[in-house]
Amino acid sequence: MDETVIELSRLTKRYGEFTAVSELDLSIRRGEIFGLLGPNGAGKTTTILMMLGLAEPTSGRATVCGIDATRNPIEVKRRVGYMPDDIGFYEDRTGLDNLMYTAMLNRVPEAEARRRATELLDKVGLGSAAGKKTGAYSRGMRQRLGLADVLIKRPEVVILDEPTLGIDPEGVRELLALIRELSRDEGLTVLLSSHHLHQVQQICDRVGLFVGGRLIASGDLAALSQLLDGSSSYAVELDVGGWSEGVESALRGLDRVTAVDLQEKDALSAADRSDDVVTVRVTGTDDIAAELAAVVVGSGASLLGLRPLRYGLDEIYHRYFEGGNPVGQLH
Ligand SMILES: Nc1ncnc2c1ncn2[C@@H]1O[C@H](COP(=O)(O)OP(=O)(O)OP(=O)(O)O)[C@@H](O)[C@H]1O
């Protein structure tokens, strides 16, 4: 089941003295949605171009669907749908015409192309705009048409370079949901590049953090959090009413608890809380939320809130930049 669809090994691209991508190793499995996350200039587009055989690696190898992208770019192109960040359409033609044209270039028979184009336009929410010239499409509509355009030839893999660039938040939400849905419905492997942490976090099964041409970490969110933390620690924030030293020592007394820290009250929450309500952050070696709740209540205090804390990608990203050290790699 764990069939590898994209395999990059020691993939490197140098422009003169400058190394844009350095010794990149990455495997992406069939059906995965993988987010290549990194700031501008990190080397995301260069990596994508090498996967498509559109840029030649200085060394290393990119294999897509078992095909060497450098040696056989045409075969790779048949199986991969690529949406660049500056997608272009024939502006004086309709959305449907544009899709039909792409289908023709990919040798899809006309009747099938029309059926598929109509179905895809509906799927991406452009059914009613199918007959409208793309010159009059909004940025969000263009991106959705772009998705339909890469899917018309029934690719096995879809590569999307910054798909949400320039779209408003509502449009972004819709587009991401659509990408996930299409990936599930069509059994697609998706690689998407982005510098938007939250967006990637919403739909990707795994992410790779790409900085300065290097993949500094990859894994699912939980794995990345753990990697950054250096240990398998879990943290929970509790809002407790009737806080006392007794409650505190009962929490500290638990085997798997490593720290109990009282949190400072912020001005907003202090305003509507009585003095004996405190927020404590409890760290443990395991997921101990249920045990903590039982201890608080058992000590006669009241539990007013409980929030498991997990690092978001934002925090992971900033920690990397603040710390300045590569955090390692997970596969
Ligand atoms: N043809 C080229 N010649 C020289 N340098 C290049 C060339 N193409 C890209 N670069 C450099 O390689 C680095 C990586 O560029 P790349 O476009 O891959 O980054 P990116 O992560 O996709 O960033 P962005 O989000 O800005 O597109 C950049 O510093 C860029 O200036």
Automatic annotation (TrEMBL):
Residues 6-237 form the ABC transporter domain. Belongs to the ABC transporter superfamily. It comes from Cohnella ginsengisoli. It comes from the Bacteria. SUPFAM superfamilies: P-loop containing nucleoside triphosphate hydrolases. This is ABC transporter ATP-binding protein. PANTHER family: ABC TRANSPORTER, ATP-BINDING PROTEIN. Keywords: ATP-binding, Nucleotide-binding, Transport. GO terms for molecular function: ATP binding; ATP hydrolysis activity.
